[in-house]
Structure formats: structure tokens, C-alpha cells
Amino acid sequence: MADDPDNSVPAEPEKMFTLKRWNCVCFWNWDVECDVCAICRVQVMDSCLRCQADNKRDVMGRQDCVVVWGECNHSFHHCCMSLWVKQNNRCPLCQQEWSIQRMGK
Amino acid sequence: MSAAKKYKPMDTTELNENTENITACLKKVENAAAAAAASTLGRSAFAAQNMNSAASTNGERLPNFSKLGGHHGEIRTASTTSNLLNRMGAIHNSKPGDVKKIVIKNFKAKPTLPDNYSEDTYVKLEEAVIAIQLSKPIKYSLEELYQAVVNMCSHKMDAQLYAKLKELTEQHVKRNIKIKELTGGSLDKLVLLEKINHWWLSFCQQMIMIRSIFLYMDRTYVLQNSSIHSIWDMGLDLFRIHFAQNNVVQKRTVDGLLTLIEKERQGSTVDRGLLKSLVRMLCDLQIYTSSFEEKFLDATNQLYKAESQRKMQELEVPEYLQHVNKRLAEENERLLHYLDSSTKHPLIYNVEKELLAEHLTTILQKGLDSLLEDNRLNDLTLLYGLLSRVKNGTSELCGNFNGYIKKKGRTIVIDPEKDKSMVQDLLDFKDKMDIIVRNCFEHNEKFTNSLREAFEFFINQRANKPAELIAKYVDMKLRSGNKGTTDEELEKTLDKIMVLFRFIHGKDVFEAFYKKDLAKRLLVGKSASVDSEKSMLSKLKQECGGGFTSKLEGMFKDMELSRDINIAFRGHALSNNRDVHNLDLSVSILTMGYWPTYAPTEVTMPPQFINPQQIFNKFYLEKHSGRKLQWQPTLGNCMLRAQFDAGPKELMVSLFQALVLLLFNDKTALSYEEILAATSIEDGELRRTLQSLACGRARVITKTPKGRDIEDGDQFDFNDEFTNKLFRIKINQIQMKETNEEQKATEERVFQDRQYQIDAAIVRIMKMRKTLSHNLLITELFNQLTFPVKPADLKKRIESLIDRDYMERDKDNQNQYNYVA
């Protein structure tokens, strides 16, 4: 393999230190403006209240309870929002017509 | 005859033997005639048989059968045997249907006894009885005597005969008891006892003999009159009356017995046969309970009361217990050998009471702690065995056991200097106590529960620390490098840890520390075994439910997902980009919220780092839209290839160390300020990093001036003379005094979380109750909250909620709160 450190010839042999491997750590979170879902009042990083109660997270991983962004850029749990729109197809925060801009993956 | 047989006077086989001997001759005669006629002739033959024997036996017996004859009034008698046989022949010869009746007639004259028969017989029987009583030979044959009794009875002289016999017996008893009394005064107790025993035994023998002779009377006259005693009972009765009435003899006998028993208790050997025989005598006379048992128990009580008081002072508790055990065994043996079994309960009860129950508290207070301390299993088993026999014994023992655990456990837990060994000590202590409960206390449920309760009590005597140390202990066990333990052993240790964990009230503290350590293990890849980690997780889940572990599980899941993403990324980078060819990049992508929080830091990174990072960022966000990544430079590590004069080395370093070292590629000498400006690592952190590189074990750069601490203006040079026998060198980071500060931070976080929980609980309760007094609210809170809290903390939270308008004080009653919707 080309990036195997033992086989590769250093490009600049006079260099005293060459970076060979980097194990790094990063955190991810949803790219949201408000980190609490306005519908269930739970942080969007956590599963929504309903999913927590059903303990879905244990079985399916958190893919189930993703975040959804509207055109208004407000974000909610997808689970919460899909229930909300059945009653009222407006954003609970700004009352704009609700249409999904993007969905978390 | 053996002693045993003598004491079974009612034994039927023996009776039968006697009877048979006497009546054997009767039967012989009868059989001869009966053989001929019995089967065919039925009723008439029966009559004939009687007549026949009546005719052929001696005169004395006649009256006996004349009675029978009288009963069959209608039978016409044939006078001789031959006559009868002839007739029978005739019946046989005649044709069927031609039946002739046999008619048996009564005697013409009723047979009578000789005139002086009853007087003579009385005399004869009296002589015989007296002879028996004096153990002299009897003039008459036993058969003759028996027949005499039968005849007397048949002629309704049984009542007089019985009275006569009773009188004779009574005289005999009186005579004897007088002798004993006379001689008793001067006799040694033992000799007296032996005499009485002898007298009693011979009396029994005599009564058996007499009864055999008077058997017929016993079976007719006595049976028909329910108010009179059988001959045997009559004998006993008389014996009893005179023995019991005669206080001197009775008292001396009982005293003698007690002296003998006391001697035996003091260890001398005594004649148990004699004791047994005399005790049986008392039983048979039915004066055992009244005259003996009570005194015996009294004596026992006194003896053991004095003894236990003395021994308690003289002996250590284990020795005392051995002694008690020995005593009980002795008493049981005594019961087995000579005492009446009815005494068993009161005797053993009394001994136990005097030896144990009275000293229960002293025994436990004086001895239990040291027994437990020294793990003296056998003595503890004995203690349990003995105490379970007395009232309240086990509960007292249990209480003291509980007290010991609490006291001892507290010393383990409370001392901060013993923190290092606390968990191991606790585990050992628990093991020890478990073994004691299992082996010594018969796995008694009361003790198991008490053990549990005591552990729970003392472990929570010191808030938070035990939980933290248990978490640390688990970390130590699960971290790799903990060699020498197999998976099974580890599993066992974890199980034991879980037992301790169960006792802890502040489980959130444990969780916080456990999480922190787990994060470290996962990120540095230091976990000893994934299976053990998973097993620990499932144990926690079982114990505290899915809510407790869901975040911990999330951490494992993150690690798995990261692995997949890295594989995908490597494929992606190979096909699209050359920048990362020489860098082996692996990223751990962690879900914010699952992991412990780390303070975000910003550093300046050279393009070697920035480029691959950006490529990865792009790659990742394409896959997962809507997310953002936050890089954590404090975590993670690098491998650098270094060229020294002595040859190349591989250095395992932290990101900060790598950033510093890479600066020397462009310039071999750098000042502290230059490095600080180039990397913008936080000041303290940078000093520690430089220290690790220039003052640690592997000094890849040199510092001028030399010294342990990094000062402003220090100069750093690349150390090209660096040598090390290893090719791959790990340069350790110098840890911030993290233990204390980080610990504080973790604790702080736990308390923060608790505050929210308290708030939530208060609001929950108030929402339900609407109005509630302060005290009731506090009580409810204590019930709901799973971690230890101080009332003062609760008050603060209530104040805070009032400030935030979740609730208010009642206007009229300051101690009452109202919920504000």
C-alpha cells in the first residue's frame, strides 16, 4: 500500500520530523441554531421524548430520531414534526408554511 | 432374666409362656379324646369332650367342669368314654336321614368342693406367696398353685383372694421399707441406693412370679371390675404408697441420685446402670416428676448458674462455647442413658438458659467481634449452632453481626488515607462475610439481609467517594496491561464489583466517573477486552435499566461507526486525493452528549493536519448532512518519524507534542515565545508539552538553560544526538494535576445534574399536589430522589424555583407552597 509508512521513501529525507499517522477525535452535533426541539423540549442531540419513552434508541441506533430543518431554518425532531404537521402544517415557531429544507442523516 | 425384661411386666409372650407351662397337662388329656370326635360331631362332641376329660382327671378338677355342665342343661350325658364312642359308631353306621339325637343330661348331683377347700387353698397360696417374697423355695408346684387360683376364682372367692393377696403384698412392702429405714441412717448413700435398687428389682421379680400364679384372677376378676388394679399395678401402687409416704427413704434415694449425677457432672465415673435402674423405678412408680424431676432440674440450674458465671470470667469466648457444647452433649448423653425422655425438654432448656441465654449479651459483646475479625469459622459455626437453640439467640447474633460490619466497614470507607485500597478491602471484606454467612450461619436469610443492609449503610456513610473509587477500580480492571487475569477471573471480579455497586446510593457519581474512564479507554484503545466491556455494560443495564446505560452504549456504537467511516474514507481518499497518501489518518467521530464534555481549545495547525482534516470534513458531511464537526485537539495522538544522527526513530506523541516537534523542521532552535506564537497552544498546556519533550525520559529536544521548569525566554534545540535502544518510543504527556481538578469537575457535573433532577422532582410533586407544606414536600422528595441530598440543598432549589415562578409561598402560611401553573 502506498501509504504504508515502512515501504514509502520519505519525500524530503532531510526533514527531521515527518507526520506518519494521526489518530484524531472530533465531536459531531446537529448544525442547528437552537439545540432544543421546541415541540418536545428535549435537546435535539437526544432522541425525542417519545422515542426515549419507547427506548427505540437501544434497538435501532439514533437514525430513527433525526433532525429536520424547515425552509424557515427552524429545526425539530423529525418524529415530533411529523406528528405536528398532521394538525397544523405550519412551523410552530414562526407560523410559516412548513416545508422541509433538509433532513439529518 | 435380664434387667430389661424385668421392666416389661406386661409383655404378653412372657405371660403366655407361664400360662402354657401350667396348663400344658390339661391340654394333653383333652386332645386324646377330642381327636376322635371333634371334627364330625360338632356341638355334641364338644359336650362329650368335656365330659370325657371330666371323667378322666382327678377329683380336684371336677368342680371346674361341673360348671360347664351346668350351662348345658339339656344335654343328656353318656357316662363313659366307650359308651360315647359306641354311640358315635352307631351314628356313623346308620343311613343318612335316619338321624338320632344325642341327648346329654345333667349330673344327677351337683359337684361340690370339699368343705375346707377354700381355707386350705388360702393357706397354700399364702405360704407360696410368702415363700416367693422371701425368695425361698415353694413347696407346691406352680401348676398346682395356678389351678388353685383358677378354682378359687371359679367359685367366686376371687374378691377375698384378691384382698388377701393385697394384704400379703402390703405387709411385705412395709416390712421391707422398715428395714431400709432402720439401716438407712447409717449407710453410705451409694450403698443405700444399691440396696434400694436390689430391693426394687427383687420386688419386681416377685410380683411377676406372683402374677403368673394369679394370672387367672388377673384375667377374669380384675378385668371384670374396672375399679381394681391388676396385680402388677396393685403391687406398684402399694410400693409407691409406702415408698412415697416414707419421706426418709424417698428423700435419701432422690438425694443419693442427685449426688451421683453431680459426681458424674464433675467428671467422675459412676454406675450408670444403677442410676438408670433407679430412675426407671421412679418412673414406674409414677413419682418421677413429683419427687425427682423438679429437684433434679433445680440442682442442674444451680450447678450451671454457678459454673457459667465462673467460666465466663475464666475463659475466652471460644473456649466457653466449646465448654457449653461439651456440657450439652453430656446432658444429652445423660438423657439417653438413664433419664426419662420426658425430662429432655426442661433439662436441655434449663441448661441452655443458664449457660447461654443468661450470658447472651456478654458472649456476643465479648467474643463476636474477635471471632469475625480472626475469621474463626469453626467457632462461629459453633456459636451459631448454640445460639440458635436459645430464644432470641439468632436475632441477637444477627444484630451484633450487623453492628460489627457497620463498625468495621466504616473504618474501611471513612479514612481518606485508605482510599487507594478501599475497593479491594471492601471486596475482601464482603467475601469474608459472605463465607461466614454461608458456612457458619447456614445461609440464614436473616443474616444475608442483615449483611446487605449493613453494607449499604456504611458504604454510604461517606458520600460520593466510594462510588468514584469503585468506578476507578473497574477502570483499572478493564484497562489493558492488567495482565495475569483471565476473562473468567475478570468476569468474577466484575460480578463482585456489581454487588458493591448495588449498595451505592449516588449511582450518578459512579456513572460520571465510569463514563470518563470508559471514554479514555475507548479513545486510546486501551480497553483490555471488548467482551468484558460489553459484559460490564450489560451488568449495569440489568442493575439500573436502559436509561442508565444508553449513553454508554452510544459510546460503543460511535466507536464502531467510526471504524466503518474510516474504512470508507480511506477508499475515498485513495481514489480521489493524493494529499493524504503519506498520512495514515483515522478519526473517531463521537456523538456530542454521549461522551464526557471536554473543554474546546483552538490551536494553529500546519497544513499537514489541516488538509486531511478538511478532506475528511467534506467527505463526512456529504454522507451525513445537517451535522457539524468539532475537532478536539486535546484528544488523539500522532506517530512521527524522526531522523537523528544515530538513525531513524518512530515517536508516539500527542497532537500538541507533534505540533511542537514539527516546528523544528524549519528551524533547529526556537524560543518559548516563538513556539507559543506558532502553535497558539494554551500557555500551561504548552509548558507541560515542552517539559515532556525536553525534560522527560526521552529528550528529543534540549532546553537552555537547563532545569525542570519551563520559563519564559527559554531556548529549545533539536537534539540530534538523541539515542534510545528502542525504535518506537512513546513520549508520555505530563498530566496536569488532573486527578484533583478533573475529579472536582466531574463531581461538579454530577451535582449540576442532580440539581436538575431535584428541580424536576419538586415541580412534579407540586404539580400533582398543588399545595403542600414544606415538611411534606421534603419527605416526598427524599422518597423520590435516588441519590443522597442534604435538606439545605433542597431548600436552595425550592428558593430557586420560587424565584423562577414555578411555585410560590402561601400568603397566609409561610410554610406552605402553592404550585404556579
UniProtKB/TrEMBL annotation, chain A:
Subcellular locations according to the entry: Cytoplasm; Nucleus
Gene behind this protein: Dana\GF19783
Superkingdom assignment: Eukaryota
Glycosyltransferase is among the record's keywords: no
Name this polypeptide is given: RING-box protein 2
Subunit structure: Catalytic component of multiple cullin-5-RING E3 ubiquitin-protein ligase complexes (ECS complexes, also named CRL5 complexes) composed of CUL5, Elongin BC (ELOB and ELOC), RNF7/RBX2 and a variable SOCS box domain-containing protein as substrate-specific recognition component. Also interacts (with lower preference) with CUL1, CUL2, CUL3, CUL4A and CUL4B; additional evidence is however required to confirm this result in vivo. Interacts with UBE2F. Interacts with CSNK2B, the interaction is not affected by phosphorylation by CK2.
GO biological process annotation, one example: protein ubiquitination
EC number: 2.3.2.27, 2.3.2.32
Keywords, in A-Z order: Acetylation, Cytoplasm, Metal-binding, Nucleus, Transferase, Ubl conjugation pathway, Zinc, Zinc-finger
GO cellular component, one term: Cul5-RING ubiquitin ligase complex
Pathway info: Protein modification; protein ubiquitination
Top enzyme class: transferase
Catalysis performed (reactions): S-[NEDD8-protein]-yl-[E2 NEDD8-conjugating enzyme]-L-cysteine + [cullin]-L-lysine = [E2 NEDD8-conjugating enzyme]-L-cysteine + N(6)-[NEDD8-protein]-yl-[cullin]-L-lysine; S-ubiquitinyl-[E2 ubiquitin-conjugating enzyme]-L-cysteine + [acceptor protein]-L-lysine = [E2 ubiquitin-conjugating enzyme]-L-cysteine + N(6)-ubiquitinyl-[acceptor protein]-L-lysine
Membership in a protein family: Belongs to the RING-box family.
Keyword Metal-binding annotated: yes
GO molecular function, one term: cullin family protein binding
Domain RING-type, residue spans: 48-95
UniProtKB/TrEMBL annotation, chain B:
Gene3D superfamilies: Cullin Repeats (1.20.1310.10), Cullin, Chain C, Domain 2 (3.30.230.130), Winged helix-like DNA-binding domain superfamily/Winged helix DNA-binding domain (1.10.10.10)
Annotated GO biological process: cellular response to UV; chaeta morphogenesis; DNA repair; eggshell chorion gene amplification; negative regulation of smoothened signaling pathway; positive regulation of hippo signaling; positive regulation of protein catabolic process; proteasome-mediated ubiquitin-dependent protein catabolic process
Highest taxon in the source lineage: Eukaryota
InterPro entries recorded: Cullin (IPR045093), Cullin-like_AB (IPR059120), Cullin_CS (IPR016157), Cullin_homology (IPR016158), Cullin_homology_sf (IPR036317), Cullin_N (IPR001373), Cullin_neddylation_domain (IPR019559), Cullin_repeat-like_dom_sf (IPR016159)
Pathway the protein takes part in: Protein modification; protein ubiquitination
Gene Ontology CC annotation, any one: nucleus
Pfam families: Cullin, Cullin_AB, Cullin_Nedd8
Entry keyword DNA damage: yes
Keywords, comma-separated and alphabetical: Biological rhythms, DNA damage, DNA repair, Host-virus interaction, Isopeptide bond, Phosphoprotein, Ubl conjugation, Ubl conjugation pathway
Domain Cullin family profile: start-end pairs: 465-694
GO molecular function, one term: ubiquitin ligase complex scaffold activity
Entry's family note: Belongs to the cullin family.
Protein's UniProt name: Cullin-4A
